[in-house]
């Protein structure tokens, strides 16, 4: 029995996978003769995950209405993915917009709570949550704003506990809670109800040493997003500008595991030291070729990381 | 008659290789150049101002020029955006397309009470009008209702009230458009509450609105394309050239996500000239009637946006130019 199980964040495939299942490939392929037909439906895309050895998937918040519209309810979607070899929907991703501002955060609490209920119906046990809005136009937060954002998350965590879910803080490099106040924010969190998703690229881009970060917060870290980057310690002006996640140049922030500068081998040594057991999710949004990226990442896991700890 | 290109031809909601690239400013900068290279000097923009929709999620993050915030944060200002387009060879933003279905998707995503739909619709319409005005677009093309499937889901027992309020909103929008010098044109959609014969009823109610006929949607609704253009010739604006061979054999028009069928034929649209719409007849009709407005061209949901654009340019600049009498 292996200690580490691998999931994949499905946003890599694009904003939406159009169809649940194509009924007639030739309707699309005939006359087109490109590979586009391979990317149009969940039926096939789920099989790619399983074929590559990823038996978990992670969903974005905007999948909730999609699932309701196309599958009727959460359980039907879970059955659909289970039938294709996905054993667990490991995580759902949400955003705590305006968590720093009590005059606006009520609506966000309602939406996130609904997402948590939906996640429970999917069979999900953890959520990844961006802890506030994007930095541009909102950040930096003052101490009061930071306190409100932490109170918000602690309250959300308590609500989630009743559903058997732990929300894990996911710190985007472009979040209003950023490099200079992240650790202060962490100190304000009630770790009985809130965990941390260590996103290796996001934390590295912010300017933290990923291995040191895990060493310091290993008890708080309940989940991982594994992705690589060549932009460790990116400058403020790149992280904090409008639409920072989508660089105007079209350059990528995120790369396949092993294709950037994140010290995954160092991290794996600590996983072994602290005997981490559970799911880890690979997340590689921005890749121009999802299939190649998925296979390259799994190759790196199998051949470079598994010998250290598995 | 002038031919423009709809940016909705780029389906940013699809998946596959390079799907994320379409979020970047770099993609759009390049695509504007390609649009000009394909011979189009005008573009129609999509509009969405809501956060819950994947495309408009935290608007301003990406380079898709789908609302005022996105234009301001990624292109500087409407004026700078227009200057950039001109530098690439695109002379104008012809129009903005706003779709009432986006108000419904926001309602559904936020699980808000049905009654809030009307406020969302008005917000969507008025912000899109302001966006069009800021970009000096001559027109605002409106898909006036959400998909019938959604409407039946929320308003099954109050359809008369729904139609009345929709008409009232359209009238208000037309009036606001007049004040800003923006022509409001109502578009037909095969899944609309006002599809088919009911489009005429809506146009009769909203007398001052223009009509932006979408050829593929007319075909799917089993409306005679050329005859419709002929009968409405005095109200046409922003005619949408699109193509399809889709036969709605399973009543998809009244289902949610009507453009993404889960049974029967699933490919709804095709590239212009490859379907069953009498595009040549339609364009001939427009020419003979002296139509001097924009024809907005769209290979809707084309699988390769670069190839689709080239094919569209060829169809307009070679096929139509050569064969129109």
Question: What distinguishing features does this structure have?
Answer:
heterodimer; A: 310 residues; alpha/beta; eight-stranded parallel barrel; 41% helix; B: 325 residues; 12 helices; 8 strands
Blueprint of the fold:
The complex is a heterodimer of chains A (310) and B (325).
Chain A: E1 4-9, H1 25-29, H2 42-51, E2 56-60, H3 63-71, H4 74-83, E3 88-95, H5 102-122, E4 126-130, H6 143-161, E5 166-169, H7 182-187, E6 195-199, H8 200-206, H9 210-217, E7 221-226, H10 236-239, H11 264-274, E8 278-282, H12 290-305
Parallel strand pairs in A: 1-2, 1-8, 2-3, 3-4, 4-5, 5-6, 6-7, 7-8
Chain B: E1 2-6, H1 25-37, E2 42-46, H2 68-75, H3 78-88, E3 92-99, H4 100-110, H5 117-134, E4 139-143, H6 148-155, H7 159-180, E5 183-187, H8 198-205, E6 210-212, H9 215-220, H10 225-231, E7 239-241, H11 279-288, E8 294-297, H12 305-323
Parallel strand pairs in B: 1-2, 1-8, 2-3, 3-4, 4-5, 5-6, 7-8
Helix pairs in contact in B: 2-3, 4-5, 5-7, 10-11
What class do helices, strands and sheet pairing of chain A give?
alpha/beta
SSE succession of chain B: EHEHHEHHEHHEHEHHEHEH
**Tally of contiguous helical segments of chain A:** 12
- Oligomeric state, counting identical vs distinct chains: heterodimer
Helix-strand category of chain B: alpha/beta
Give the uncertain stretches of chain B in residue-range form.
Answer: none
Helical proportion of chain B?
Answer: 40-55%
Choose one word for the global shape of chain B: globular
Compute the CA-based radius of gyration of chain B: 18 Å
């Amino acid at each position: 029995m292996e200690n580490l199980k691998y999931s994949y964040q499905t946003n890599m495939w694009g904003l939406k996978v159009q169809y649940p299942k194509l009924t007639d490939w030739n309707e699309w392929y005939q006359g087109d003769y490109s590979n586009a037909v391979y990317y149009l439906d969940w039926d096939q895309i789920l099989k790619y995950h399983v074929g590559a050895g990823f038996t978990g998937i992670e969903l974005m918040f905007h999948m909730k209405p999609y699932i309701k519209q196309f599958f009727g309810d959460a359980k039907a979607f879970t059955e659909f993915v289970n039938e294709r070899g996905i054993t667990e929907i490991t995580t759902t991703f949400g955003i705590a917009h305006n968590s720093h501002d009590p005059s606006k955060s009520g609506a966000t609490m309602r939406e996130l709570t609904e997402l948590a209920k939906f996640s429970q119906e999917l069979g999900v046990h953890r959520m990844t949550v961006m802890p506030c809005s994007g930095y541009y136009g909102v950040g930096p937060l003052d101490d009061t704003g930071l306190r409100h954002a932490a109170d918000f998350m602690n309250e959300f965590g308590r609500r989630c506990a009743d559903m058997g879910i732990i929300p894990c803080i996911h710190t985007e490099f472009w979040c209003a809670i950023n490099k200079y106040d992240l650790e202060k924010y962490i100190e304000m969190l009630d770790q009985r109800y809130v965990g941390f998703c260590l996103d290796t690229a996001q934390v590295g881009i912010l300017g933290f040493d990923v291995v040191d970060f895990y060493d310091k917060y290993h008890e708080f870290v309940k989940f991982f997003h594994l992705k690589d980057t060549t932009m460790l310690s990116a400058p403020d002006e790149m992280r904090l500008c409008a639409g920072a996640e989508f660089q105007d140049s079209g350059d990528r922030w995120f790369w396949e595991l092993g294709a950037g500068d994140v010290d995954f081998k160092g991290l794996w040594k600590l996983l072994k030291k602290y005997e981490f057991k559970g799911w880890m999710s690979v997340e590689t949004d921005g890749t121009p070729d999802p299939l190649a990226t998925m296979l390259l990442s799994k190759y790196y896991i199998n051949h470079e990381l598994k010998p250290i700890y598995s | 008659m002038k031919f423009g290109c709809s940016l909705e031809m780029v389906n940013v909601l699809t998946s596959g290789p390079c799907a994320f690239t379409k979020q970047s400013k770099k993609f759009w900068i390049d695509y504007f150049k390609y649009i000009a290279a394909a011979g189009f000097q005008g573009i129609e923009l999509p509009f969405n101002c809501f956060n819950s929709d994947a495309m408009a999620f935290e608007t301003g993050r990406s380079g898709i020029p789908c609302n005022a915030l996105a234009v301001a944060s990624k292109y500087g200002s409407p004026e700078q955006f227009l200057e950039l387009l001109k530098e690439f060879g695109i002379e104008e933003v012809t129009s903005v397309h706003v779709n009432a279905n986006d108000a419904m998707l926001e309602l559904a995503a936020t699980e808000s009470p049905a009654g809030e739909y009307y406020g969302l619709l008005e917000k969507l319409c008025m912000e899109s009008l302001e966006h069009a005005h800021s970009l000096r677009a001559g027109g605002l093309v409106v898909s006036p209702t959400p998909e019938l499937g959604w409407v039946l889901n929320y308003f099954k027992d109050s359809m008369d009230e729904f139609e009345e309020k929709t008409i009232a909103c359209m009238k208000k929008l037309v009036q606001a458009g007049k004040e800003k010098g923006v022509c409001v044109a109502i578009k037909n959609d095969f899944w609309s509450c006002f599809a088919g014969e009911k489009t005429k009823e809506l146009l009769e109610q909203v007398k001052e609105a223009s009509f932006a006929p979408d050829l593929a949607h007319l075909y799917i609704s089993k409306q005679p394309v050329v005859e419709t253009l002929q009968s409405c010739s005095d109200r046409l604006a922003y005619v949408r050239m699109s193509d399809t061979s889709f036969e709605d054999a399973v009543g998809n028009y009244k289902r949610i996500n009507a453009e993404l069928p889960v049974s029967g034929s699933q490919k709804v649209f095709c590239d212009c000239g490859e379907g069953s719409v009498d595009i040549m007849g339609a364009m001939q009709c427009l020419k003979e009637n002296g139509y001097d407005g924009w024809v907005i061209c769209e290979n809707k949901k084309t699988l390769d946006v670069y190839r689709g654009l080239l094919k569209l340019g060829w169809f307009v600049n070679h096929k139509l130019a050569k064969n129109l009498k």
